[in-house]
Amino acid sequence: MADIIAETQRLILRTIDEPDAAEQYRVLNTPAVMARLGGPKELHEIEAKHAKAMQWYAQRGFSFLMLIEKESGELVGHAGIKLVDNPLAKNQGDHEIGWLIREDRWRRGYAEEAVRAVLEWAFTRVDAPHVVALTSEANVASWKLMKKLGMVRREDLDFEDPEYPPEDNPVIQYSLTKDQWEHAQ
């Protein structure tokens, strides 16, 4: 059974449960939503990511979460915390936050609402000293939200990832320390 990690005004952030892969595949795995994340995935790939997230939550107490819209009860996205695990990244093992929102809920502030809850979780309960977020220059909405959240661009952590097309390289990072987060509250 899923654990509720946080609630916001409009969202419930809960751990991933077995049936969530099919629903994520149906509502989040579109070309538009996945455009800057390597494109749509196969169901088995989502199932594997969910299994890994459930294992991480059991072992480490954090993972990616499903975002459930309170008003409708529908899955509207996912967001959470993992460790940087890209072998090309200079900062493997840092706490990494990430998010995505389904296309019919874009431009409603759900990503910011969810990520603010994820940051609070990261800094108050997970006890992360800092977090990073990875994106590309082409993903303007993503890095604009990072800046809005008070995150700082870290050009020293940029890296090329051949898994992504040229327009999504280099991979860029923003970071936020616990102190920076606390002073912005």
TrEMBL record:
This is GNAT family N-acetyltransferase. PROSITE patterns: GNAT (PS51186). The lineage of its organism: Bacteria, Pseudomonadati, Pseudomonadota, Alphaproteobacteria, Sphingomonadales. Coiled coil: none annotated. Residues 11-179 form the N-acetyltransferase domain. It comes from Qipengyuania polymorpha. It comes from the Bacteria. It holds the Pfam family Acetyltransf_3. InterPro entries: Acyl_CoA_acyltransferase, GNAT_dom, N-acetyltransferase.
